[in-house]
Amino acid sequence: IEFINSNLFTGSGLKHLQKKDFKKLFxxxxxxxxxxxxxxxxxxxxxxxxxxxxxxxxxxxxxKTGLMHDLLTRGIDEHGRIRSKATHxxxxxxxxxxxxxxxxxxxxxITEHVGSGITPKGGSNVYGHEGILLIxxxxxxxxxxxxxxxxxITPEINQRMLRSELQDLDVLLNITGASIGRSHFVPINFPxxxxxxxxxxxxxKNKSVGKSLFVSSFLNSYEGQKQIKRLLGASNREGLNYQxxxxxxxxxxxxxxxxxxxxxxxxxxxINKKMETLKTNWKKLHSLKTGLMQDLxxxxxxxKVPENENEKEQQNV
Length: 317
What we know:
Layout: H1 2-8, E1 9-10, E2 16-17, H2 19-23, H3 33-73, E3 90-93, E4 96-99, E5 103-106, H4 107-110, E6 111-116, E7 132-135, E8 151-153, H5 155-159, E9 171-174, E10 183-185, E11 193-195, E12 199-204, H6 209-220, H7 222-235, H8 242-246, E13 249-252, H9 259-296, H10 307-316
Parallel strand pairs: 7-11
Antiparallel strand pairs: 1-2, 3-4, 5-13, 6-12, 7-8, 9-10, 9-12
């Protein structure tokens, strides 16, 4: 592939491969058909393992989606069961149906801070490879961080941005651009970090890991996204302002009792850990297949074929 990219693609616009050039390519192929078959079987086994892992990830994602809807709208009662209308009373508060024990509050009522940062003077030219993390919108995904291309700022720049320095359990929300509405929260013992103007931090009153997970999960949910889209439509602009964020309504267990938040956190954490394990296995399998292809298809590593198979092949020639 690297050779093709470097030497055979032509054209100044959309790159394309000439048929005559493709026909001139030399391929390394084992002379023994038995060895060819064994290589194909090995790679097919890897493909099958990858496909099975992808199916499991999709299965747990469906389970998680349904479970999150129930947890964010019904919650867990004192017996550890998800509430239902058959066993619990539901009422309408502030236009939203919730368990009788819950409240429907605006983000502004449950937070002590709502705000974002700035892009440092000099922009990307002042970013480094170490220092204080600067979380940007591309780093905030749905319920997780992607820190592959995270930027760093110096302690001196961070000192000038102290107002937006993050704290453990802050809920982050992308407020501009194509990723608007994506949310995750800052885990405990996360490295010292700040945010730019495209990411808003919500600091929950009487914060706990259960509350932060609940709020960020709601913002990522269908109901949360529906409110965000409605606010965007009303303002006719590609972004949310702080007042709009404070007006988002959230059905929520009582803030002065952390028990239900912790129960919900335990349930969601269990399925999240399972999915993380599957995704890690998926990455390992892909790396394994890549390594196998490089070794087996180049001839660097040869597949041993039993003597009896070679003898049969020679007899059939």
